[in-house]
Amino acid sequence: MSETKQTIDRKETVETKPFIYDYTLEQLQGWMKENGEPAFRAGQLFDWLYVKRVTSFEDMSNLSKPLREKLDAQFRFVTLSEITRLESKDGTVKYLFGLHDAHAIETVVMRHNYGNSICVTTQVGCRIGCTFCASTLGGLKRNLTAGEIVAQVVTAQQLLDKTEERISSIVIMGSGEPFENYDATMAFLRIMIHEKGLNIGQRHITVSTSGIVPSIYKFAEENTQINLAISIHAPNDALRSKLMPVNRRFPFDDVMESLRYYIAKTGRRVTFEYALIGGVNDRPEHAEELGDVLQGLLCHVNLIPVNHVPERDYVRTPREDIFEFQRILEKKKINTTIRREQGHDIAAACGQLRAKHMESAR
What we know:
Strand order of the largest sheet: 1-2-3-4-7-8-9-10-11-12
Low-confidence stretches: 1-14
Number of helices: 13
């Protein structure tokens, strides 16, 4: 066999190995059993991955050398190469990470007075097509594996370890639609909340969807305390379809019905995310209609002043109009907040940094 052929074969073998971060503790216990190892070895491995946060099997000193060699032969670590790091005046840090296949994803770490939160990405690009969002520029390239989502949190935590800080909350609101990558997203969540791992409190995690109705019903049956947010952005079917093409697949009424089921099933509050776009969906009549739709639901509305995206022709809602929108909703007994803006000086809108990178690469 030629040296070139051997090199190609080795490369293909490495690239087809699963990521070790793809596996939950229970799956690792199964792997240990299949390979003649006691189940407790999985707990030791989990500890090395998520508590000690090492980046090679060789460093796992309480595992036998043959076991370390077997792990190294069958698994690989996710490699996130830092392409760009932007740091805001408010402490927000936005990373553009390169993946093993030359794609790039964004991850954002935000500092709050109650701790550090991280916004993770679940897909390379997005096919949902929201007209105000930079993530959809270029469409969907592929889903991330559970391990590639996990690696964003682990990598950010490794960086915070240097200053003895901790990630205390997670929002799945980065690029992509997590409920179109449902199985990987759920595996990621199970790894994040495990008491032997990073042990992030379930109520400190929020997953956001654009309204993938079948997955909302599915999520209602998961029996978790993880928060659900829905990107709504309009009070009716016609306007929502203009802003969010996904509404043509899953109409407004169907989305609302699935959320009523979720609330009834779980007893948990739903957050409605509403991006305010100047002159489009931010008029008092929109607030009145939204308030009527949401009355009686266990919910909360998070108003988001839209970020300017150069490729989109939308403008921000004036400050006084934002407060008026909030007043109308609260008058209808709808709990409403205005999202605190962070990272406004560092391409804050979801997908902007990746879009700039793609344009630069072209």
